[in-house]
Amino acid sequence: MTEFAPKWTFLTNHSHVLVCLQKDPFMRARDIAEMVGITERSVQRILTELTEYGVLTREKEGRRNRYSVDFSKPLRHPLEDHRAVADLLALFA
């Protein structure tokens, strides 16, 4: 995490987690938590929510989890639901 932690950001922690997993589908919750600046427990909750919504699929590979993103899922807010997860993540590719 950087020395300067802003009080607010334009993206949610859910989108930050997705950006991390887009870059590395094997990233551990501990590493995601450090990068996003939240607790590992919060990351676990977000991973569960994203999995329940169908944005993420979790597969066990050895001792690690591999996360796959369903880029076709629509964003959830009414102002954004005409866009897909792919549109959001394309900003960070």
Write structural notes for this entry.
It is built from 4 helices and 2 strands; from the N terminus they run αααββα. It has 93 residues and is α+β, with helices and mostly antiparallel strands. The chain has one domain: Arc Repressor Mutant, subunit A, CATH 1.10.10. A two-stranded antiparallel sheet has the order 1-2. The radius of gyration is 13 Å and the shape is globular. The chain starts with 12 loop residues before the first helix and ends with a helix.
Written as H for each helix and E for each strand, in order along the chain, the element string is HHHEEH
How many domain regions?
A: 1
Number of helices: 4
Number of strands: 2
Write the layout of secondary structure elements.
Blueprint: H1 13-23, H2 29-36, H3 40-53, E1 56-61, E2 64-69, H4 85-90
Antiparallel strand pairs: 1-2
Main traits of this protein?
two-stranded antiparallel sheet; 13% strand; Arc Repressor Mutant, subunit A; alpha+beta; 4 helices; 42% helix; single chain; 93 residues
